[in-house]
Amino acid sequence: MLPKVKGMSQGFRDARILMYSHDTFGLGHIRRCMTIANHLVETFQGAHVLIISGATIAGAFDYRSRVDYVKIPSVIKLRNGDYTSMDEHINLEETLEMRQAIIRQTAESFQPDIFIVDKEPLGLRREVEDTLVYLKSRGTLLVLGLRDVMDAPHLLDAEWRRNDVMAKIDQLYDHVWVYGPPDFHDPLTGLDVPPSLRRKMTFVGFLQRKAWKSRATALPKRDGDYILVTTGGGGDGYELVRDVINAYQADPDLTEKALIVLGPYMPGEQREALKQAAASHNCLEVIEFDNRMEDLIANARAIVAMGGYNTYCEILSFDKPALIIPRMVPRQEQLIRAMRATELGLVAMLHPDHSSDGMRLSAAIKELLLRDPPSATAPDYRLEGLPNLSAIVQEYLQGKRPDYLTAVES
After folding, report:
1. I want to staple 187 with a disulfide (CB 3.0 to 4.6 A). Which of 59, 150, 258, 294 is the partner?
2. Order of strands across the sheet with 141-147?
3. What is the mean pLDDT of residues 203-227?
4. What is the DSSP letter of 85?
């Protein structure tokens, strides 16, 4: 049982929290980091959070006061698993060297009390390892944050064995936060996890989202009479949107309005092709990006999505019926999460092999509109991740050390 956060800011006036988000594909990492950062500065009024991010659009989001970001050169992960530099005039190795140098210099300048690394234990191509060693030497609390599902065990095991990642997590990190409840999924299932590392793991729960009180953008507020179709960052979202448009074209009885968000990383040719295909159907509205997806989900009637981590948190936070059509490559993360969530009654799922059948997808969308929200289908599921991780942070900032650290030091 985690302690409750009792005060707000007493004793934490100069607390500095550094976060790292490698951001090579999609928006999941930076949006998760931003959610945590915004919550921490709201909870601890003297805290300052700095996010190191490789996202090309890191500056497009709204950050709370006392949250800022440092942009490192962008590297994009291709669908075949390879990486490439965003700047065609600089090769990948030079880009990685610049990223590593900026990360280390930022840590030396900011001197954080806590360093939270999102998902990649050593960073992209081990770019954070040197900084972890440095910060550990000066007593910074080192935290690895893992989403509920990482990948199929055999794929994750092979990836981590190449750089002895498991041993280095155990050696370098003080905490491992799992951003999901223990009865949903263990991200390290099927791997040989040392008992000493298991003792450092805390399943904090899903990270709750909330709508913004006001909009700084000129985008109109919609009335909620729509299905929201979201692909996340959009880099691999073409098939989902194509299939939804095809379902509307195949079935004239499918007349529910749909708002389609393509995502900022969808290739230009694909984006234009989808816009043209949707233009002939008066039930479809297509936009490229909204930096406050929480508002669009909060106002939607139902959700059709690929099912990344953030989308699940938003579906549960705003209690929306959802149809998930997961991607299968290069990771099996979305498929594993969708299968488990379907088993628990949280969402409905359509296998991507079947979504290209327009009438079949149309039938699934019609069934979605009759589906009860998660609060009815899985009433015991709550989102407690943010208050739970705040409780851990508060204990550390008050000078309390985790039990396993005290035992080792003594």
Report:
1. 150
2. 67-71, 48-53, 16-21, 114-118, 141-147, 175-179, 201-203
3. 73
4. E
The rounded distance, in Å, linking the Cα atoms of 362 and 371 is 14
Task: Go through 94-123 and write b for each residue having 16 or more CB atoms within 10 A of its CB, e for each that does not.
Answer: ebbebbbebbbebbeebebbbbbbbbbbbb
State pTM to two decimals.
0.90
The pLDDT of residue 121: 98
**CB–CB of 320/297 below 8 Å?**
yes
Q: Which of 323, 274, 271, 315 is nearest to 296 (CA)?
A: 315
Question: Is 218 a residue whose pLDDT tops 70?
Answer: no
CA distance 236 to 78: 10
> In the structure encoding, which two tokens stand for residue 258, read together?
């749909």
Instruction: State the pLDDT confidence band at 220, using cuts at 50, 70 and 90.
Output: low
Q: What would the two tokens of residue 306 be?
A: 């690929």
Amino acid 347 reads: V
C-alpha closest to that of 171 among 140, 139, 142: 142
